[in-house]
Amino acid sequence: MGRKLTLKLGGRKLPNKDLFSKSDPFLIVFNVTSSGAFKFVKRTEVKKNNLNPDWKELEFEDGELDLGKSSTIVRFEVLDDDGRGKAEHLGSAVFTLAQLEAASQQGASLQLLDKERHAAGHVVVQSYRLD
User: Which helix or strand (DSSP H or E) is residue 97 part of?
Assistant: First the structure.
C-alpha cells in the first residue's frame, strides 16, 4: 500500500469580499507538475460566513502528490464561494511539503497573497501526518 498524507488546514484573517455577510471560503490544493503547470488535486468544503475557517482533513495518496520528496511543491488557493458556481479569489501561495510539515511542527502560519500580491490572510497547518 502506498503512502498517504493527511493535512488539517485552517485559514486566519482572510479578506472579507462579501457585502452583506462574511466571505464563504474554501481551499483548493494544486500539484505543480514537472512542466510548472498547476493541476487540481483536492478541495475543502465551504465554510459559510467565516474569515477564520477550520476545514476538515484532506487525504492525499502517493501519486496525487509526490509524497516521497519533501521538495514537492503544492499551491493553495483560497476562494470565496459566491454561489451559483461562482467564486472569488481571496489569496494563494506556493509551498513545499517540507514547509507545510515545519509550519505544523512550529505552529506557524503561512502567508497568502491576493492577485495584487498584497497580504491576504494566512493558512495554518493544524496537522501534517505522513503514513
Answer: helix 97-106
